[in-house]
Amino acid sequence: MMEDQSLDFISNLPLEIQQQIFSFITLKEAVRTSILSTAWKSLWTPFEVDLGSDSNQTTNHEACEKLTQAMAMFLRSWNGPERWKFSLSIHDREDDDLIFSAIKGAEKEVHLDFSGRKQLTSNFSLILEPSGPISLNQPIDTSRFSSLGTLHLRSVNHLAKNLVSDFFSNCLLLESLKVEKCNGLQSINIKANHCLQSFIIEDCPDMESVTLSAYNLKSFWYRGVLPQIHLKNTAHLVDVILDLRGGLGLNEFDCEDVVDLLASIKDIESLTISGWLLEWLCAAGVIYGKLEFKFNKLKELCWIGSSMDGAKRNSLACFLNISPFLEKLIVNVDKSCISIPCPFFHQFWHEPHLCMDCETNYKASQLKQLKIVKLAGFTSEDDQFLLIDFLLKKAAYLGSMIVTSPENQSWRIFKIPQSQLKQTVRCYSKQVGISSANNDCFFGLTEVDNNN
């Protein structure tokens, strides 16, 4: 009886108070509140905006002008999360009406989502550049969407490319840009102002080319198929993710393009990279030690892939030779990644090399700064301990090596010579000893409590 009479206190709050609460929460949290009560769900009901007119009279320029005016109204304040739904008729057929939603967050964040009607697959290119000056020595007109800090573009299609380009051109102080799930997008060319610090592009399966110029860019994250990636004027880049779990897609593998990409990011501090790319470079004849650059500022490396075998281990070893100041290494075997087999290459622009010679790798330059190693997801014990053995020889001053199983059980690794095996076993009660491949030593695995 008491439960039947319980009150929905949120629904009974005055509208002004509900809106005030909305103004203090992030966009992600605001979306979640729609399930709390009927009243809060109604706050998230989109405001309908029809930008259409006589489709025979509407040009792309007029459509862009209408969108600019509507978005200026939409961004007039940041009092709280808000959602508008736009519709625009550009062509004669009703099916080609452009319908998208704009969601505004309280922290100067806007999401433009073009997936509401249907997925359009016509191929297109996207050119994004500011309409104002890009030099720090020139004043920026802050009257156009100046308060917008983060822009998230989702499912942009060929009908929307001009509208998106025009909108971006007015975002002169944008700090963060994300583009995702754009079917048909083959190339994106971005020339940003000095404010852009972060660019993320994810899951655009038709991508062939990414060109980015952003002087103050700190972070570049890419996930999808391997395209040509050209990073220009990015001297302040620190963090790069090249999650190429999509493989090549319909693109061709160009060894020189990939080497040029690595050269353009040689001064970064953190890198996540797909293991198959390093393996393919080795198989194509690239000798890392003979490249004209090293990753002398790289402190953290994360290797990701569907498996770790001998070829992948050796290609990782070769890459570590040009990362002499690495402090942290993470190797993550992720079964959700597809297996990308290495093809046979005719080595036509580099001489073949002996990267498969493990003993040569052992004697290469030591990783004197490497203190932390984390290995996760291994299903093959042999592959796992071959890599562990290599790393223990390579990193003379290693402070911690943690192995996490696919079942999320973690173990701390240390190497036990045969002569010290009995003493070590007496010292550690909660450990497992596993013999090395050539039986000259044991690996000690001490269980780690993941709850701590």
Gross geometry: globular
Radius of gyration: 27 Å
Number of domains: 3
**Average pLDDT:** 78
Q: Structural class, from helix and strand content?
A: alpha/beta
- Range of helix content: 10-25%
DSSP strand (E) fraction?
A: 25-35%
Number of helices: 12
Low-confidence stretches: 1-5, 138-142, 348-363, 428-438
Q: Major sheet: size, sense and barrel closure?
A: 17 strands, mixed
Would you report the number of β strands?
Answer: 21
First and last CA, distance: 44 Å
Description:
Helix 5 packs across helix 6 (161-169) and helix 8 (275-283) crosses helix 9 (310-320). 23% of the residues lie in helices and 26% in strands. It has 452 residues and is α/β, with parallel strands linked by helices. It has 3 domains: 10-44; 46-135 and 142-213 and 225-232, no CATH class; 238-408, no CATH class. The strands form 2 sheets. The chain has a 17-stranded mixed beta sheet. Strands 5-8-10-12 form a 4-stranded parallel beta sheet. Helix 9 (310-320) links the parallel strand 15 (300-305) and strand 16 (328-333).
